[in-house]
């Protein structure tokens, strides 16, 4: 319980919103309307597991796995890799693909807009961790290490 309390808000958002987004892919994202002519129109619910949904799922699994490994375990990961930036890229990709999926598919359900919001919360969490890491890196850098732009005129 103490380990959960010590996690940052961004990490908590990613670790909660990510699995919720994965579960949402099995729920109804759109309703297909099939016209049978004189027999009527059938409304068939469609889940989120199409090409776009699978890409959303892969990006989400990657983001949640990296955050889980970095923040909740004692696994030694390379310090030379910008992990927070990678997580931010994956979470932003998942959000962008979820929004694109919802915008381009006909007959999107009201719930699918909520699923896009969940993807956005995951991306916000990843951004919060990324921004905190950048602030830490800037505070740790020596004052003379900053890049300076000189005038060529």
Name its key features.
mainly alpha; 5 helices; 2 strands; 153 residues; elongated
Describe, in plain words, how this protein is organized in 3D.
This protein is mostly helical. It has one domain. It is 62% helix and 10% strand. It contains five helices and two strands. Strands 1-2 form a two-stranded antiparallel sheet. The termini are far apart. The model has no long low-confidence stretch (mean pLDDT 90).
Q: Sheet with the most strands?
A: 2 strands, antiparallel
Structural class: mainly alpha
Rounded mean pLDDT score: 90
The helical percent reads 55-70%
Q: End-to-end span in angstroms?
A: 60 Å
Strand content: 5-15%
Number of strands: 2
Number of H/I helices: 5
Task: Classify the oligomer.
Answer: single chain
Strand order of the largest sheet: 1-2
Write the layout of secondary structure elements.
Blueprint: H1 2-5, H2 9-24, E1 28-35, E2 41-47, H3 51-72, H4 83-104, H5 110-140
Antiparallel strand pairs: 1-2
Provide a short characterization of the protein structure.
This protein has 153 residues and is mainly α.
């Amino acid at each position: 319980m103490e380990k959960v309390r010590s996690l940052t808000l961004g990490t908590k958002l990613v670790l909660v919103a990510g699995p919720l987004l994965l579960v949402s892919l099995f729920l109804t994202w759109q309703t297909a309307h099939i016209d049978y002519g004189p027999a009527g129109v059938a409304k068939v619910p469609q889940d989120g597991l199409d090409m776009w949904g699978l890409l959303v799922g892969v990006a989400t699994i990657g983001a949640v796995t990296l955050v889980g490994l970095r923040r909740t375990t004692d696994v030694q990961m390379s310090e030379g890799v910008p992990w927070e930036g990678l997580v931010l890229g994956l979470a932003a990709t998942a959000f962008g693909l979820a929004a694109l999926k919802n915008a381009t598919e006909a007959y999107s359900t009201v719930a699918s807009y909520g699923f896009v919001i969940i993807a956005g919360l995951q991306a916000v969490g990843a951004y919060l961790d990324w921004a905190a890491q950048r602030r830490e890196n800037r505070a740790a850098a020596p004052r003379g290490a900053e890049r300076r732009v000189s005038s060529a005129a």
